[in-house]
Amino acid sequence: MGRIMGLDYGDKTIGVAVSDEFGWTAQGVEVIRRKKPEDDLNRLRQLADEYAVSGFVVGLPKNMNNTIGPRGELCIAFSEVLQEAFGLPVTMWDERLSTVSAQRTLIEADVSRKKRKQVIDKMAAAIILQNYLDSNSKR
């Protein structure tokens, strides 16, 4: 099956998570500070090679009424670039509440605001990926 990489694609950062080999659990890996698109892709390539990933799940931010706004359009465009660059399957996954959920978890764990900022995207990526993995395991 191979590992799946989950990505939380934002304006300034890309949160990265990977699954275990069995596709059961997601683990936050790092937050990429976005620079140039080719730098972002190079770092993703290094991580994809290191973890031997066989596909990607990209968070798709939808509006609460299920429509796709400008932010979602950017994520779709990014997933197309990813597909072209890696030639691996890319799945878009509704991420509407992943950042909210990550924020709540960190607040409940009493993580300081400064520290939360450093890990929130990585955690959101892990939540996106975990939700995707959970939905697939029920099939």
Automatic annotation (TrEMBL):
Top-level taxon of origin: Bacteria
Enzyme class: hydrolase
SUPFAM superfamilies the record matches: Ribonuclease H-like (SSF53098)
Cellular component terms (Gene Ontology): cytosol
EC assignment: 3.1.-.-
CDD domains to which the protein is assigned, alphabetical: YqgF
Function in brief: Could be a nuclease involved in processing of the 5'-end of pre-16S rRNA.
Native source species: Paenibacillus oceani
HAMAP family: Nuclease_YqgF
Keywords annotated in UniProt: Cytoplasm, Hydrolase, Nuclease, Ribosome biogenesis
GO biological process entries: rRNA 5'-end processing
Similarity remark: Belongs to the YqgF HJR family.
Matching SMART domains: YqgFc
Annotated localization: Cytoplasm
Primary residence: cytoplasm
Domain YqgF/RNase H-like: 2-102
Protein name (database record): Putative pre-16S rRNA nuclease
KW Nucleotide-binding (keyword) present: no
GO molecular function terms listed in the Swiss-Prot or TrEMBL record: hydrolase activity, acting on ester bonds; nuclease activity
